[in-house]
Amino acid sequence: MDADPLDLFLPPIRDWFRQTLGEPTLPQRQGWPLIAAGKNTLILAPTGSGKTLAAFLACLDGLWRQPQLGLGVRILYISPLKALNHDIHRNLQVPLAGVEQTARTLGLALPKIQVGLRTGDTTAEERRRLVRKPPQVLITTPESLHLILTSQAREMLRGVTHCIVDEIHALCPNKRGVFLTLLLERLEALTGRPFVRIGLSATQKPLEEVARFLAGLAPDATGALQPRPVAIVDGGLRKHLDLQVVSPVEHFGPLPEKSVWPSIYRLLSDHIREHSSTLVFANDRRAVERITACLNEQEELARAHHGSVSLEMRRQTETALKEGRLPCVVATASLEMGIDMGAVDLVCQVASPGSVARGLQRVGRAGHVVGQKSKGRLIPRTAADLLELTVLAREMALGNV
Question: Which residues fall within 8 angstroms of residue 20, CB to CB, at 6 or more apart?
Fold first, then answer.
């Protein structure tokens, strides 16, 4: 009989998880023992499968067991999106408060863990407060990590023991990823010892190359650089999908309204009214604003979400979307990754997302709960879009990233 992975944890963590969430998911069962053993770990698993707790819970267990290892940040969480960071910061309060309450019920005392957030939206006063009284857990972006490491604030990172890189697939193939690898090496030089690296994503392949990216290189006994070892948890890309390519017109020849957009608006409006909460993705801010304005001509159906929307409005929209209080949000990639939005029951993608991985990420925002089906409708703007989306839909269904 296999050992229960929850037995790795302190009793308050184990009891809270069982009472609140029940049985661990596959990435949790396989990931916790590896992280607890101090191994660099890459976790691939579908959206809504508990990847965040797969990474955090083993790290938090170690922090609660050894709170005396010095002041400063012990767990560093990095993601490419400010919206995701804000969501993680808020969501972490649930297990922290739950475990602390369970500990009190058991007659045990656990030290209180503070969680800090450092992004481009963080005010100057909040940044100073983070330096004066560093949290044990810091949530940040690659760019903000760079600013910390190049200032006196870097001293608060000297005690880092675990680093979680979320949505790692979005960083691997670009300059931000190269930038991050350099930052992680600078961080290791600062700490003076290896820290545990944990990578998370629903759409990362090839896994061996992503693992090399996560762990980087270290000198062996002869001084030659060798890839650091990484344990890979392959929870599979296949999630239950209800996926259709839906053309807004019968054919893309001469159109009676001289544009395909009126047909797209009508199609979107019908889908929105048939569902509780719809997330529409467009590929640029102009399209987002255009779609939002036209959907709202008769009645207010939609809100826009992208990087040029004010921080306050973005936060309000994200909260209302999570709580199921909005019929529709139209977004760029700003809502593509990670945010917990269990109320969304349909994703519409207008025009091609450009890749299978991006399509899976976006459609995966619907049904963002363990075991739930993700429903997506892919809407072409042109005949070329129709061909590309047809191929993408087939590859998405097969999980061929």
Answer: 98
**Residue among 353, 300, 355 nearest 331 (CA):** 353
Residue 363, φ and ψ in degrees, nearest 5: -65, -30
Residue 98 and residue 119: Cα distance in Å, rounded?
26
CATH number for the domain running over 241-398: 3.40.50.300
Query: Which CATH architecture describes the domain 5-234?
Result: 3-Layer(aba) Sandwich (3.40)
Long-range CB pairs of 307-311 (<8 Å, 24+ gap) are 307/332, 307/334, 311/121
Q: Where are the domains of the chain?
A: 5-234, 241-398
pTM of the entire predicted model: 0.82
Which residue from 204, 259, 246 is spatially nearest to 27, judged by alpha carbons?
204
5-234 and 241-398 have identical folds: yes
> How many Å apart are CA 314 and CA 331, to the nearest integer?
10
Phi first, then psi, for residue 65 (nearest 5°) are -75, -35
Mean pLDDT per 10-residue section of the chain, whose length is 401 residues? 84 96 92 96 85 93 82 93 88 94 94 93 92 96 96 95 93 91 97 96 83 92 91 78 92 77 95 94 95 92 92 89 90 80 89 90 79 88 94 88 72
Closest CA to 137 of 74, 45, 92: 74
For 204, the 3-state DSSP assignment is coil
Residue 191 near residue 73, CB atoms below 8 Å? no
Those residues whose C-beta lies under 8 Å from the C-beta of residue 71, and which sit 6 or more positions away, are 134, 159
Beta pairing, strands 374-379 & 241-245: parallel
Where helices occur in 150-206 by DSSP H, the ranges are 175-191
**Residue 377 has which token pair?**
């409708």
Q: For helices 51-65 and 93-105, give the axis angle rounded to 10 degrees.
A: 50
d(CA 218, CA 311): 40
